[in-house]
Design brief:
Layout (H helix, E strand, L loop, with lengths): L11 H10 L10 H13 L9 H17 L3 H10 L9 H12 L12 H23 L1 H10 L4 H8 L3 H28 L4 H10 L4 H8 L3 H34 L8 H17 L3 H10 L4 H9 L3 H12 L1
Helix pairs in contact: 1-2, 1-3, 2-3, 4-5, 5-6, 6-7, 7-9, 9-10, 9-11, 10-12, 13-16, 14-15
């Protein structure tokens, strides 16, 4: 069959079947040859050359005779089969096309012509796009856009089918790309962890701010395992904080020196004498405290020196009596 259609025209065999689909049952009760020429003229009007091409005219006779014998248009069977496809069916479009041809071709053998496969595959592709679009519209919003992006639908088709702007597409696509980058980063962490234990891998990912859902998906760990590691890490942090607080308290106690009751009488007398020398030198609290600290005078005595200096006499008397 000669396909004299340009690239922007429907394939000739489909134009024939479209035209036959529009014929009434009564058209087949008259003179077959008259019907051939009538139908050829209708197809000629679509831009094809059937009336003036013997090969095409012969192909049309075969198509009309098959319609007469079966009692219904081939295109109704073909479209019915394609419309009945599901998303699972069109996951592999070539297999879906072969299945459709296998079923419909039992009644319409000429459909099995290898020359028709590209056109049939295009029909399956269009059906797949329709199913994907319907699913995206069902999801709605960003989820629907994301669904078509992840399904590999071309950008202009996504924008057209979902009636969105380029800006909206770019916004959602940027989020999708960011998620891809994050998945790649996490997979790199997992691969880099090598033979480390599961707990160590989880700990690594927690420290790298990986979301729990991504850990579960890419590392194959469980929610319970993640919780166990998080609990252990929190306990470790609390212990570190406790030890740090104790160390800080010891450091502070060491810096402040002994309490008033713990100072030996002889040390008390030495400290009081040093304080009095400092007081003779300055009456500014900041300077007094600085010089007392440099002289390793206990903080309890320094506080008395700047707030109740007269009490030093009382402490001195007690220390002399005790000594």
């Amino acid at each position: 069959m000669t396909n004299d259609a340009g690239t922007d025209k429907q394939p000739l065999w489909l134009s024939m079947e479209e035209t036959i689909l529009g014929l009434a049952d009564g058209d087949f009760s008259g003179n077959p040859e008259q019907l051939v020429h009538k139908t050829a003229k209708l197809i000629d009007d679509t831009g094809h050359n059937v009336s003036g091409n013997g090969s095409n005219l012969l192909e049309l006779r075969w198509a009309l005779e098959a319609r007469r014998q079966v009692g219904r248009p081939m295109l109704s069977d073909l479209r019915g089969a394609v419309d009945g496809l599901t998303l699972d069916d069109v996951a592999d479009t070539y297999r879906a096309m072969r299945n459709v041809v296998g079923r419909v071709g039992e009644t319409w053998p000429r459909l099995k012509d290898s020359a028709r496969r590209p056109d049939l595959l295009s029909m399956i592709d269009e059906a797949k796009l329709g199913l994907l679009t319907a699913k995206a519209q069902e999801l709605g919003g960003d989820k629907g856009i994301r669904y078509l992006i992840e399904a590999g639908v071309e950008i202009p088709l996504i924008i057209e089918r979902l009636a969105i702007t380029q800006e909206k597409y770019d916004e959602v696509n940027a989020a999708v790309e960011a998620e891809k980058a994050e998945r790649s980063r996490v997979q790199g962490l997992i691969d880099g962890a090598g033979d480390k234990s599961v707990d160590d891998k989880i700990k690594l990912m927690i420290n790298e701010n990986v979301e729990d859902a991504l850990m579960i998906e890419l590392a194959g760990v469980t929610t319970a395992q993640i919780k166990g590691v998080k609990d252990a890490m929190e306990a470790e942090i609390r212990e570190k904080e406790r030890l740090a607080a104790e160390a800080e308290a010891r450091k502070k106690a060491e810096a402040e020196g002994p309490s008033l009751d713990a100072i030996e009488p002889s040390d008390m007398l030495e400290h009081i004498e040093a304080i009095r020398e400092i007081l003779d030198f300055s009456d500014v609290e900041k300077e007094i405290r600085t010089m007392c600290e440099q002289s390793s005078i206990p903080k309890c005595l320094v506080d008395i020196a700047v707030s109740e200096p007269d009490k030093l006499d009382e402490l001195e008397e007690k220390a002399e009596a005790a000594g």
